[in-house]
Amino acid sequence: MSLLKFNKSELVNLSYSLKREILGSNKTGAYLNTSIIACNTRRYHGLLAVTLDRFGGDRFLLLSGVDESLIVEGKQFNLGIHCYGDIYEPRGHKYIVDFSANPIPQITFKVGDILFRKSLMLSQDKDQVMIRYDLLEAGSDVKLYLKPFLAFRNIHALTHRNPQARVEGRPVKNGMAFCMYENFPELNLQVSGRSADFQYLPDWNLNVTYSDEYRRGYDCREDLFMPGYFRINLKPGTSIVFSASVDEEDTSLLKKKFDQAVTRKGSGESYHDQLTRCANRLVTNHNGRRRINAGFSWLCTGLLRETLQSIAGLTLYGLGDKAQFEEILDNLIADEQERLFHRTTQVEAPLYLAIALQQYIDYGADPKEVWKKYGATLRGVLESYLPGVRKEVTMHPNGLLWAQMDGVALSWMNAYIDGRAVTERAGYQVETNAFWYNAICFALDMEKLCRRGGSDFVKRFSAIRDLVKANYQNCFWNGKFGCLADYVDNNGQNMEIRPNQIYALWVKNSPVDEDLAPSILRVMDNELITARGLRTLSPRDIRYRGVYEGAQKERDLAYHQGSSHPFLLEPYIEVSFRIKGASFWKRAEWLTEGFYDDLNKHGVGAFSELYDGDPPHEPHGAISSALSTAALLAVDRIMEKYKEE
Predict the structure, then answer these.
(1) What is the rounded CA–CA span in Å between residue 512 and residue 501?
(2) 581 burial type by CB count under 10 A (0-12 exposed, 13-18 middle, 19+ buried)
(3) Cα 587 from Cα 573, distance rounded (Å)
(4) 462-502 residue pLDDT tens
(5) N or C: less crowded end of the chain, CB within 10 Å?
(6) Which DSSP symbol is given to 186?
(7) At 75, which helix (H) or strand (E)?
């Protein structure tokens, strides 16, 4: 795909190329992530980060990078690049003439009459990264030096030269194995072919600087261990494969394994192909347990809200796999008993289970079978919101849910500055109560479908449903503004114009009268909609921050105070089609096509977590987001439904 290619003038421009990242991930939970010129700019960047159960299931960076040098007629040309303070050395990017990311990242270098290509591949079924080096053109034989940089640290931390580090390695076939600290796995560094030898020359590369961390005001310098280097003779037209793996590999099979992996990946021929590829990337199968990664490369795997909101988009609309939907949901329920039934700081998240089940049924699942399997779980979730169960949220006599813990943000808008919530939203939250009403209605419908209409649950929650319906609109509707309050507290309605009210229209069982929907949507059209999602706050608000940049404080102020979030397009576009009909199709196309134009930005070939609220709406946050990917897949499905009309 031409959209995943860059030319020489772009690649040698550091202000351009360092902002664009490549990403690879696999089912074990491992990833590789770096810039398109292989210069690491974040602490999370590296060529092999793996999930380690022995350390609580967090991810750890083993291999930070590999520097290449070509030796030609006694002259050495260094192809690597690192940042030290504000100095880049060596400046190997000046030799780059081409980059492509389809189907895998490939960087092409030109040194005189030498054309040399580097291709990166993460194994899909094990903790292994492979790098293939091809000497495409050369006037004579070339000697290749490969210098690995080891980290052996948590992806959120940084490492420094220390006496505890084990710098000794042990020989393995065509390479060396290293384990820098106790309880870590060995990292086997190996090369295919017979012409390679490893020169053990241990040293530390000091004060490597990560420019993105520096720009954000974080600790940004670390020391990386260099155990030595490989020396390899290459003839024109030949290639070798370098492997870094937690297992010792059969080096005679590395080339074949690399080629087979590339063939299996295929090449995406459409934007939808890119979406489904990203969906597959975000579903892990670590230790045989499928879960959803919220986003690369620092977001967690198996989060409650992110999983429930993205599970239908990724597994059903993206991968078309009902079995994966159920497996992931089963694992989530098993892992999240505390949040589902007892306490959580995102009080709306457990109620999203009803929406995920509704989406599953809409996709074709048998309603009775779904309710037979998951009905008890959803009933338990609903009962946990009754008085006396949860401390953070409870049902009031009017049937509505009141969420409050002093100083705690009890919704998805949960950024903090110096320990204080930016958007606390204590009281009756507009989306939480819409989810509450929808979940109750859905559960009652399912109970009656399965002939449990006379149960105590049905009697109790039928009365609660009627209370919520009678009080929701009176509580949240504001005729002067023509929309819903974002939340209501002891001081009355809070009329910050935020996107949360879209959910009151989107849920299948809406607590809002149908004739109010056009007015609410009009306010959102005027205040919140952008070419990259919905703003989290109206630009007319004094607290609005339209650019997500700067240190942590500035970014946290913008995260829910103006940044645009693509995942909000799913409910917005579906509601717009319901109200405006097929005539909305062109507008929906405009709202989504920009994301595909951005596939050369931020995460190459991936869909970002958030965007600036102000034009030109630059991407930020996680470079590959489960919420964004799932929402765009859902929108694709919605648009396909209305396309013929």
Answers:
(1) 10
(2) exposed
(3) 9
(4) 999 999 999 999 999 999 999 999 999 999 999 999 999 99
(5) C
(6) P
(7) strand 75-78
- Match 């919220």 to its residue by tokens: 294
Residues 6 or more apart whose Cβ sits within 8 Å of residue 629: 275, 278, 279, 282, 310, 313, 314, 318, 606, 607
Per 3-state DSSP, the chain is made up of helix, strand and coil in percentages (nearest 5) of: 35, 30, 35
Exposed (0-12), middle (13-18) or buried (19+): which is 323, by Cβ within 10 Å? exposed
Please say whether the beta carbons of 17 and 10 come within 8 A.
yes
- Report the C-alpha gap between 633 and 276 in whole angstroms: 8
User: What distances in angstroms separate CA 237 from CA 57, 97, 136, 254, one per listed residue?
Assistant: 43, 18, 5, 18
The full 3-state SS of 464-515, as one line of letters, equals HHHHHHHHHHHHHEECCCCEECCEEECCEEECCCCHHHHHHHHCCCCCCCHH
Lowest-confidence range among 399-403, 435-439, 599-603, 623-627? 599-603
d(CA 425, CA 485): 11
Contact 570, 635 (CB under 8 A): yes
* Cis status, amide bond into 566, omega within 30 of 0: no
Structure tokens at 292: 């959803």
Distance from C-alpha of 190 to C-alpha of 472, rounded to nearest angstrom: 64
0.90 exceeded by the pTM?
Answer: yes
How far is 62 from 150, CA to CA, in rounded Å? 6
Query: Using alpha carbons only, what angle is made at residue 194 by residues 189 and 197, rounded to the nearest 5 degrees?
Result: 50
Contacts of residue 68, defined as CB under 8 A and 6 or more positions apart, other chains included, come to 78, 79, 80, 92, 118, 133, 144, 145, 146, 147
Dump the DSSP string for 83-121: EETTEEEEEGGGGEEEEE-SSS-EEEEEETTEEEEEEEE
Strand-strand pairing, 289-292 and 283-286: antiparallel
More confident position, 381 or 551: 381
Tell me the β-bridge partners of 283: 292
Token output for 339: 């949040």
> Position 88: which residue type?
Y
What's the chain's length in residues? 645
Q: How does strand 175-178 pair with strand 187-191?
A: antiparallel
Q: What confidence tens digit (pLDDT) does each residue in 142-165 have?
A: 999 999 999 999 999 999 999 999
Residue the block writes with tokens 């020396």: 231
Positive/negative CA dihedral, 69, 70, 76, 81: negative
What pLDDT sits at residue 2? 45
Cα–Cα distance, 549 to 615 (Å, whole number): 14
Could you write out the three-class secondary structure of 26-72?
Answer: CCCCCEEEEECCCCCCCCCCEEEEEEEHHHCCEEEEEEEEEEEEEEE
Amino acid at position 153, single letter: R
Report residue 160: phi and psi, to 5°: -140, 160
Amino acid letter at 482? G
- Chain centroid to Cα 440, Å, comes to 31
- What is the helix (H) or strand (E) element at residue 523, kind and residue range? helix 517-527
Phi, psi of 240 (to 5 degrees): -135, 160
